[in-house]
Amino acid sequence: MNIKMISLGIFVVAAAGAKAAEHYKPTYDSLNAHQTPEWFRDAKLGIYTHWTPTTVGNENVGCGWYPFHMYCRDEKLNGHLEVKGKGPHPAYTGHVEKYGDPAEFGWKDVIKTFKPTQFDAAEWADLFLEAGARFAGPVAIHHDGYPMWASDVTRWNAGDMAGQDFSAELEREIRKRGMKFVASFHHSHTWRYFIPSYEFDGADPANVDLYFEPHEMGDPLSPRFRKWWRGLLNEYIEKYDPDMVWLDMGTRDIPDDLMYPFLADYYNHGLKEGKEVATTVKNYSPYLPGAIIDYEKGRVKDMQKNPWLTDDTAQPGWFFSNRDMDKTADELVDELVDIVSKNGCLLLNVGPNSDGVIPEAQKDLLRGLGAWMKVNGEAIYDTRPWNVAGEGPTKLRKEGSFSGKLKYTEKDIRYTKSKDGSTVYAMVLARPDREVVLTGVNGKKVCTVELIGYAGDLKWSQSDSELRIMFPSGAADSAAYAFRITL
Predict the structure, then answer these.
(1) What are phi and psi of 394, to 5 degrees?
(2) CB atoms < 10 A from the CB of 247, how many?
(3) Residue 432: closest CA among 468, 483, 471, 476
(4) Signal sequence span per UniProt (predicted)?
(5) Nearest-angstrom CA–CA distance, 253 and 230
């Protein structure tokens, strides 16, 4: 064959590949064509970690937004800078008692005290796997402006200041165990986060690379901030190649002309690497095209057409807290089952202490969830929504973020199905007394009924209106009971 023809053929193939790799454009319609990854639809459960220098402040006064509230001397404010009352915030009072005036010892100084001595990425990853997670990763950067990796974008980073690249260690150990690697980015909120600091050390030009230029709410992002925001994402993706970039707050402060090019580049990165990638957006933020909608500590009332996500926390608050646990493994199982039945997944947060130790109470909760998943996981993993999400008296009162806890009864049933539709799983969210009555399989011919984890035969009958199953008294106690129904 003519050498020129061979060269031309190679050029055409290369050009076609390059074109495929640049499939997404920074426009709404192009980005919105991005599909939710199959791995996410199969995984159902993920774990991430709120663990940054903010943990130090939270240990001090129990304030998860410590870098913000430690500067609130004259008014008690919330994250939107709305006045909530007069008087100093407890974080300010606690900071002064421990460190002194924030003008002298500010957030820039608290950061330097974050020196974890007991962080063990392998131990964390083992725990996440034991809990049943199929995707996991760190809070890569919180509102506090401190990347949890060795960064060349800013001097305020874990590599330079704590002497460790936590993201690199977690990425290695998480992937080694077969889980997808995800990272959450909360730095969209940093632009407004340090506004109270400008009355203290935040206005010092020497600190502009941490607090940014003094500004007021609603002011446009500075060129410095825009470069910093995008630069951190670019660097992280290049270094650690996350399967999901979880975006807190989304476009609430990041304009489309900054966000859309990032989304296009990240989606195209997935095409180039031959992998499915995902992004998220909070349901209360402006929608990001092609992203998975995330409900913070919340859920939806009924099945959704598109996959969605709940981010919730295993402990009181997002960062480590000495408060008593307010969740049980039973409640966590019920929450997961309800979410999955409605086409959702759960991203569960754990909060290590400032030394990098996950407290035993949180470990016990995760192990309890994992023990249930080890027996009943086939009703959760790799499933799809059934014709109905469920039945029973307990209903979600408020849809969306912060929708509250529910206490389920033996009458509350949730359904999933195998991908091929030949098997339906009916999960009863409390121990039945004697008989389980299901109406969710009406119109389908049932062949067999089994209780997962129970070796004995079951007595059951089917009529036109319902399926009745005698619950075996010898069944072991469980957070929820999963029946395998073949059609």
Answers:
(1) -85, 120
(2) 25
(3) 471
(4) 1-20
(5) 13
Cα–Cα distance for residue pair 74/94, rounded to 1 Å: 14
Directed axis angle between helix 3-21 and helix 256-273, to 10°? 130
Angle, nearest 10°, between helix axes 121-131 and 166-176?
40
Q: Kindly state which CATH superfamily the domain 26-379 is placed in.
A: Glycosidases (3.20.20.80)
Question: Read out DSSP for 409-433?
Answer: -TT-EEEEE-TTSSEEEEEESS--S
Beta-bridged to residue 384, according to DSSP, are 417
User: What is d(CA 136, CA 182) in angstroms, rounded to the nearest whole number?
Assistant: 6
Along the 487 residues of the chain, how does pLDDT read in single tens digits? Answer: 443 333 333 333 333 344 445 799 999 999 999 999 999 999 999 999 999 999 999 898 888 899 999 999 986 555 455 545 568 899 999 999 999 999 999 999 999 999 999 999 999 999 999 999 999 999 999 999 999 999 999 999 999 999 999 999 999 999 999 999 999 999 999 999 999 999 999 999 999 999 999 999 999 999 999 999 999 999 999 999 999 999 998 678 999 999 999 999 999 999 999 999 999 999 999 999 999 999 999 999 999 999 999 999 999 899 998 888 889 999 999 999 999 999 999 999 999 999 999 999 999 999 999 999 999 999 999 999 999 999 999 999 888 888 888 999 999 999 999 999 999 999 999 999 999 999 999 989 999 999 999 999 999 999 999 999 999 999 999 999 999 999 9
**SS3 state at 337:** helix
Strand partners for 75: 86
Are the folds of 26-379 and 390-486 the same? no
Asked whether the CA dihedral 362, 354, 295, 261 is positive or negative, the reply is: negative
Specify which residues 180 forms β-bridges with. Answer: 135
354: tokens are 């400032």
Amino acid at 457: D
What are the sequence ranges of the domains in the chain? 26-379, 390-486
Q: Give the CATH architecture of domain 390-486.
A: Sandwich (2.60)
Contact 214, 248 (CB under 8 A): no
| Rounded Cα distance, 60 and 425, in Å | 46
